[in-house]
């Protein structure tokens, strides 16, 4: 890893990353690096986790409010949710994401592995597009209604 252990810890703590968030992001990254995980598996698994969390903590009366609830409940980072024709646009400020397998977990392999599309889809009860797009300083996920 490019950082010294102390530098990495300080960098993650400055972003508000808690040990459990670092554990989850690092676990996802490690599974990918040893070859037992791909984006399809991450999506399906995190969608199930999202549904489970919704069963435990309850969904809100709209998908947009449910997205806000799960992200705030899990303290995932700075985000915004916008309603657009045909669905929702969820944007997470990339530098603030506390579950990113790359920025937090140290993943250095190519390819996508973001756990948010499945998690958000499962918790809000609406399908997400599988392609996470970068738009400036945000990672953008589109969800249908």
UniProtKB/TrEMBL annotation:
Keywords: Membrane, Transmembrane, Transmembrane helix
Transmembrane segments: 20-43
Name by which UniProt lists this protein: Metanogen output domain-containing protein
Lineage, uppermost ranks: Archaea, Thermoproteota, Thermoprotei, Thermofilales, Thermofilaceae
């Amino acid at each position: 890893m490019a950082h010294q252990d102390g530098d990495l810890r300080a960098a993650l703590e400055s972003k508000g990353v808690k040990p459990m968030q670092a554990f989850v992001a690092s676990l996802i990254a490690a599974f990918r690096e040893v070859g037992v995980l791909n984006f399809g598996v991450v999506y399906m698994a995190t969608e199930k986790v999202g549904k489970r969390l919704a069963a435990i903590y309850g969904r809100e009366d709209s998908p947009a409010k449910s997205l806000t609830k799960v992200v705030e409940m899990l303290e995932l980072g700075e985000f915004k949710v916008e309603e657009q024709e045909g669905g929702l646009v969820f944007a997470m400020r990339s530098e603030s994401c506390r579950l990113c397998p790359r920025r937090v977990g140290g993943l250095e392999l190519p390819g996508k592995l973001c756990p948010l599309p499945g998690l958000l889809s499962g918790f809000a009860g609406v399908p997400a597009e599988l392609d996470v797009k970068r738009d400036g300083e945000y990672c953008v996920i589109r969800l249908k209604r």
